[in-house]
Amino acid sequence: MFKNIGQILVLFWQTMLSLPQLWRQRRKVYDQLAYIGLASLIMVCILSFFIGGVLALQIGPELVKRGISSVLGGLIGISLCKELSPVLIAILVAGRVGSAIAAEIGSMQVYEEIDALRTMNISPVRYLVLPRMVAIAVSVPILVLFSIPVGCFGAAMVCNFNPKIAVGFAGFFENLRDVVEPGDVCNGLFKSFIFALAIGIISCQQGLITRGGPRGIGRSVTKAVVNSIVLILILDYFLTRLLFFLPK
Amino acid sequence: MTTLPQSKSVRVEVRDLRKSFNGADVLKSISFKVGPGERFVIMGPSGSGKSVLLRLIIGLLAPDSGEILIEGQPSRNAAVHSKYRTAMVFQSAALLTSLSVGENVGLYLAEHQLKTPAEIDAIVARTLETVGLKDLQDRSPSELSGGMQKRVAIARALVVEPQLVLFDEPTSELDPLMAVTIGEEILKLNERTGATSIIVTHDRELAFATGHHIAMIHDGRILFMGTPEEVQHNPDPTIQKFITAELAPPKPR
Fold first, then answer.
1. Is the distance from CB of B225 to CB of B198 less than 8 angstroms?
2. Residues of B with CB below 8 A from A117's CB?
3. What is the pTM of this model?
4. CB atoms closer than 10 angstroms to residue B181
5. Do B87 and A120 lie within an 8 Å CB cutoff?
6. Domain spans in chain A, listed from the N-terminal domain onward
7. Fewer CB near the last or first residue (10 Å), C or N of chain A?
């Protein structure tokens, strides 16, 4: 485990050092942005809509019983901005994109393509890791930015049309506007940025240390996804603690 | 935009090289010298450590002990591979499957920004024509046969204008006709660029046709080193067994 952590830190440092060469890799960054961002957008919207809906369905009737249904919009908005959207979108991206990164780089490692790059004096960090890291770090916060309003809309739909809740659109969004501040959205975006870096670096590292044939690739993919999700949840706790101390 | 420096082939010296994996000795005290522009063949049975030796020379692996010198400078120093252009043709061709054939061939020039895109396209087209793969730039490597993939790998090495080029089992898994074509490509590349060539193979015909010198490697040691004629006439039973081995089918009843 400590060896893995060491390798991740070294790879992250090497990626930071190769940042000045980002302009040369811009075409690869665009390709990755399209793959990670655009291709995940529809899935993110569907997921967010239903997360918002389920959240309203679960807590709406309870708040109605206690006569405080007017706070539904703010409560759901805060939950989505600060917690649910960043974490769930990061888990979705870990499963969808992290696995693909680990599989692609892992198969390049197994089939000697990365050795071929090295013999041509082309750094795999600059050529493979940097574009993926930049693309994932840019796309995940953007996906979260889409996820929050879609999730709120899903929740508002349930609140409006479910007879047990019966909170209208106007009331829902009015409370949402009163409670949720730009700082709350930034809080979620910052979290998602850190989660994205974690997913990117773990997936690239697992790909680069792949050994053996198809079984080795499968092992790397599993480890990339599981390790990313575990790290996302651990980081979530510490980032939440940290963000409590920052001014809004 | 920088330009490729003038080609000048390099000399390679291997001194008392040792390498083991998980306690098993793969290379045990290997030493040899390869002169500038020379075609040096390392021949031996499968599993004798030939490919490991090649990976040590190119710097993909680090030796346990011993030295590899390129123009007198240790090859484990990454700067040496920047100073002297080295290329390797892998046994599996190792083409990047996410790129087209043309992008694979022009990758070195594009990544090091040595030429403009238009110049790279022209060089790629010319080089592919040289290896008999005209107009295949836009194909995917997976659409090509094994022999064609190896020729693309040779084209990729050719574009580097290498001073040292390493071939790992260039004719393995190929039919005899394709093996001859690849052998000819190796000779042409050596004539065209004057690059020092180190060829690892267990293909006897390729070794005797292309090598100025041949090193017979067995069980991690060099058994004998000399010209193709000297190897063929060496009385060592292990060498003779390797170079004269033939399948003798039982007589039909």
1. no
2. 96
3. 0.86
4. 17
5. yes
6. 26-236
7. N
